[in-house]
Design brief:
Layout (H helix, E strand, L loop, with lengths): L9 H7 L1 H21 L5 H22 L11 H7 L12 E3 L2 E2 L5 E3 L2 E3 H7 L5 E4 L2 E8 L15 H4 L5 E7 L7 E3 L17 E7 L4 E3 L32 E2 L6 E15 L7 E4 L5 E3 L5 H4 L20 E21 L11 H22 L6 E9 L5 E9 L15 H13 L27 H13 L8 H4 L3 H9 L4
Parallel strand pairs: 9-15
Antiparallel strand pairs: 1-4, 2-3, 5-6, 6-10, 7-8, 7-9, 11-12, 12-15, 13-14, 13-15, 15-17, 16-17
Length: 495
């Protein structure tokens, strides 16, 4: 049919072309199964069952949406087919966001794409983007799916009405915790589910549907200011059920669980957590929380009209964090901590250093036993308290590829092997470093946490996991080596 399923709006297309699509699907399915069954790849009965199942799903989908042809649901064909189970979400490229560049007539001439996480950083409002030697400053949230001729004045409005794109989230304001998750609309939660403090703050989260240049045009390089903002590491907010956890043989304080299609929340909170101001009508966007910035800086719409004109907007500003959820499979390792023997204060340097170092070393060890590049798997950790007074350190591994590639899932029954390889890695730094170096734990991908990495702290946490042992006290002669530092800290008022 010659369409881009990642851009084509689902409802009007599917309702209009349903019969034509069903015929094409049936014809293609029959043709493919005949070819594959001829060489023994597909049994005839299985092929028939798959065909009937697919056609039934499409028919159910048509019944669900046929009366909503003019609805505000602007999801693409790709997103809807994945959401409804027609396409597999597993290892399927989704959440791909483009930066839209216009020609002099207002048509989209280029659209470089990035994954959601990369786009939230590289295309965030205020960032400079260079394409084909032309420089642009990102200045708007924009999608080519909506017809500009029909909604020239309010291209962004339908997305702000859709909870799939605009919703409330809650973030723990405790800097030692930083839990974040989607707000439960039925409950007014005030206490953080992880640190248990009354520190939850509600904020607006907007999932960008695409980006566009400031005022829809390129700028001279000399006038391009680059406002750099960082993206948070993917945060996992759900807690495992007791019946999901599996015991690791030979480990006293370690359990694990494989989790399917889990949501990881990614945010760009802007500079100093001030977020971004986004116009609810046109989608124009700037860093910060000043509602008058659109008028102070004479911000226009981030797109051109069909004849190439730049048109002003009566902006309705909304302060938001930019972000969204990605779904992926993950493996979660739960480490039970005894507060009587280990300081579990989130501000305690050791627990953070040990957890971060173990998370990074597990990734490196996993890449070895799976024989893959280490950046194919990523990690995160969190410190979680329960109302019963038990504290856990959770370390989770997930695939770098959107929707997963199956690497983390394949670790489910290899926990003992994984921790043995991790221990070997931590004990055998080629440079025999005193904490961490580029020969053992440090690499380009974890440069944001280089200051926290310590292979010996990770080894201590493994000893606790397996044997319930804590590090021994330093002998007095070694403690004396730290006395000058201790006196200096007291003198500076830091102790």
């Amino acid at each position: 049919m010659g369409i881009d399923i990642a851009k084509e709006a689902f409802t009007p297309f599917f309702v209009t072309h349903y019969k034509e699509l069903m015929k094409e699907v049936l014809r293609t399915f029959v043709s493919l199964t005949q070819e594959e069954s001829g060489i023994g790849l597909v049994e005839e009965t299985i092929a028939e069952e798959l065909k009937d199942s697919l056609l039934q799903k499409l028919e159910d989908l048509h019944s669900k949406y046929r009366n909503h042809e003019n609805s505000d649901d602007d999801r693409s064909l790709l997103d809807t087919f994945v959401d409804e189970g027609i396409f597999p979400s597993y290892s399927f490229p989704r959440d791909v966001i483009g930066f839209h560049i216009f020609d002099v007539k207002g048509n989209i001439s280029q659209r470089p794409d990035r994954s959601l996480e990369m786009a939230l950083s590289e295309y965030a409002p205020g960032r400079t983007v260079v394409v084909n030697k032309n420089t642009y400053v990102s200045g708007g949230i924009f999608s080519s799916i909506i017809n500009r001729s029909a909604r020239m004045d309010s291209m962004a409005e339908p997305y702000f009405k859709d909870r799939a794109f605009f919703k409330e989230i809650q973030v723990c304001s405790n800097p030692a915790c930083n839990w974040m998750g989607i707000k439960n609309q039925k409950k007014d939660e005030k206490f953080c589910p992880f640190c248990l403090n009354e520190t939850l703050v509600t904020a607006n989260c907007l999932k960008p549907w695409g980006f566009a240049p400031k005022n829809g045009q390129s700028v001279r390089v000399i006038k391009a200011e680059n406002d750099y903002t960082e993206v948070t590491k993917p945060a996992y907010s759900l807690t495992p059920r007791e019946e999901e956890m599996k015991v690791v043989e030979g480990s006293i304080n370690l359990r694990y669980a494989r989790k399917i299609s889990q949501p990881l929340l990614i945010l760009n909170k802007g500079q100093n957590d001030k977020g971004f101001m986004v116009c609810r009508l046109c989608g124009a966007a700037v860093p910060g929380d000043d509602p008058d910035v659109f008028y102070k800086k004479h911000i226009l719409r981030p797109y051109l009209s069909k004849n190439g004109n730049i048109i002003p907007c009566r902006h309705i500003p909304q302060n938001v964090f930019l972000g969204g959820e990605i779904l992926t499979d993950l493996i979660l390792y739960e480490i039970k901590i005894e507060e009587e023997r280990i300081n579990t204060d989130p501000e305690n340097l050791w627990i953070n250093r040990a957890a971060q170092s173990l998370a990074e070393s597990l990734v490196l060890a996993a890449s070895r036993i799976l024989d893959i590049e280490f950046n194919e798997i990523r990690s995160g950790f969190r410190i979680r308290r329960t109302n019963s007074g038990v504290t856990f350190v959770d370390i989770y591994l997930f695939d770098s590829l959107t929707s997963g590639a199956g690497y983390s899932s394949s670790l489910e029954n290899r926990t003992k092997e994984l921790f043995a390889e991790t221990k070997q890695l931590l004990n055998s730094c080629p440079s025999s470093c005193e904490s961490a170096c580029h020969d053992c734990l440090k690499n380009y991908w974890n440069q944001q946490v280089h200051d926290l990495l310590d292979r010996f702290a990770a080894l201590q946490l493994i000893d606790w996991c397996q044997k319930g042992e804590v590090a021994k006290d330093l002998p007095m002669p070694e403690q004396k080596n730290f006395w000058p530092l201790w006196k200096s800290l007291i003198r500076d008022g830091r102790l």
